[in-house]
Design a protein that fits this description.
Layout: H1 2-55
Keywords: Membrane, Transmembrane, Transmembrane helix
Transmembrane segments: 12-30
Amino acid sequence: MQSFWSFNVLQLRWQSCLFTSFISIFFIVIRLGIEQFVGFFELIIVFQLLLKNSDQ
């Protein structure tokens, strides 16, 4: 019974560790995605401004 209990505790710790690492990776991916999206948006705006300037 003692070994079973310790195994359960280990499993719970491992699951919580996995959960926290998954959440941190998820947040990093979201932050990087937002930064990439904003950078892409800025590139599009700059490109459009350059096209407008070249038309004149």
